[in-house]
Amino acid sequence: MIRANNNYSKLKASYLFSDIAKRVNDYQLKNPEAHIIRLGIGDVTKALAPAVIKGFHDGVDEMANDATFRGYGPEQGYAFLREKIAKNDFQDRGADISADEIFVSDGAKCDTGNFQELFAKDIKVAIPDPVYPAYLDTNVMAGRTGEYEAGRYNGIFYMECLKENQFLPKLPDERVDLIYLCFPNNPTGSTITKNQLAEWVGYAKENGSLILFDAAYESFIRDEALPKTIYEIGGAKEVAVEFRSFSKTAGFTGTRCGFTVVPKECMIFNSKGEKISLHALWSRRQSTKFNGVSYPVQKAAEAVYSKEGKVQVRQQIDYYLNNADIISKTIASIGLDYVGGKNSPYIWIDSSGRDSWEFFDLLLTKASVVCTPGAGFGRCGKDYIRISAFNSLENVTLAMERLKKALT
Ligand code: PLP
């Protein structure tokens, strides 16, 4: 008899966004005339920028000709893309990352989910609460946790991000091995300063820990004082891996491209205490299980770094940031507490005493606006909702008018 991986039975039955979809569908069926505005799931709405489309088309045209056709590409990604990434995203900001430390992938979800495979089953894992669900669920699948009880998996070190600590995790008061950090944060929209991030790098060095730094929303940072990469912090190359994505930066959620930086200095240890190169391990893993991102997609990603591409992509982010500003101002005018909305597409709103699903239902039924209930991101999210700025200006403006009406 073929038996299932028991760890999957520990996972909570359904995924947050399928629960939301079900409630929204039920509401639409009962109210067929309702014009629902979706500010829930963090998916972009603007078309790929013209420069990106040109790169994409050029790549496709090359595939149409025997002389320029490409078959399997390098698993780590084409050098033309890795070199642009290294220069523009890291070296130009004073971060000493080279092209061969970059692994191009089909997105940050796969990489943040897969990376934990490289570590022993009995390591201590620290995860923020609330959190982007993939970090936690993939550790559950790998058997690194006990059962799910009272909103928590046994065996995980939860780092609570609440109003009291400005939604920033505190340094663990015990030793942990693997630390997940995400800034600008999903779901709270909070950011971290260089000094605060330097404390995490210091902790990791002192404790022999590794930081998995998810910078999927880096392009929303407009405050030049904030770090755009963890490698702006001295010594981070020894203790941190960084995940990036073109999804939110350049509208690649459906096109699929991202990358992971694994510095050559980063070491982990085998059971005898001997050093192992994390870079070599990830390279081994990727070359075994991954066959690279399609050539036209890598050409499209390369175009993000062209002169026109940079301008166009920045305009798209500015558009979403303007939406985020409109949302933040409306929420403030209603008198609700919130964080985020600056240097981030997410606004994390205190539902002022209501349970997050109750608040979700209220906004759906009274304003036909879809948000994301904070409870879906962890126990500490139960009194919050997340509103995302990924929609048209017209829809965001209309949604905010409806929200104001429903809540004041
Ligand atoms: N990391 C965070 C924090 C995210 O919010 C998301 C997507 O919403 C991802 C990673 C996944 O990005 P990708 O589309 O590159 O898989």
Give a written overview of the molecule.
Helix 3 packs parallel to helix 9, helix 4 packs parallel to helix 5 and helix 10 runs parallel beside helix 12. The radius of gyration is 21 Å and the shape is globular. Helix 6 links the parallel strand 7 and strand 8. The model has no long low-confidence stretch (mean pLDDT 96). It is α/β, with parallel strands linked by helices. It is built from 12 helices and 17 strands. The site of pyridoxal-5'-phosphate has 14 residues, from helix 4.
Task: Please give the structural blueprint.
Elements: H1 16-30, E1 37-38, H2 50-63, H3 79-90, E2 102-105, H4 108-114, E3 125-129, H5 133-141, E4 148-149, E5 152-153, E6 156-160, E7 178-182, H6 194-207, E8 210-214, E9 240-245, H7 246-250, E10 258-261, E11 267-269, E12 275-277, H8 278-289, H9 295-303, H10 307-334, E13 338-340, E14 346-350, H11 356-367, E15 369-370, E16 372-373, E17 384-388, H12 393-407
Parallel strand pairs: 1-15, 3-6, 3-7, 7-8, 8-9
Antiparallel strand pairs: 2-10, 4-5, 9-10, 11-12, 13-14, 14-17, 16-17
Helix pairs in contact: 2-9, 3-9, 4-5, 10-12
Secondary-structure-derived class: alpha/beta
Largest β sheet strand count, sense and barrel closure? 7 strands, mixed
**Termini separation:** 60 Å
What compounds sit in this structure? pyridoxal-5'-phosphate
Instruction: Give the domain tally.
Output: 2
CATH superfamily of the largest domain: Type I PLP-dependent aspartate aminotransferase-like (Major domain)
Report low-confidence residues grouped into runs of 5 or more: none
Shape descriptor: globular
Main CATH class of the largest domain: Alpha Beta
Q: Give the ordered list of helices and strands.
A: HEHHEHEHEEEEHEEHEEEHHHEEHEEEH
**Proportion of strand residues:** 15-25%
CATH architecture level-2 label of the largest domain: 3-Layer(aba) Sandwich
Compute the average pLDDT: 96
Please, how many helices?
12
Across the major sheet, the strand order is 2-10-9-8-7-3-6
Helix fraction by DSSP (H/I, runs of at least 4): 25-40%
Radius of gyration: 21 Å
CATH topology of the largest domain: Aspartate Aminotransferase, domain 2
Would you count the extended β strands for me?
A: 17
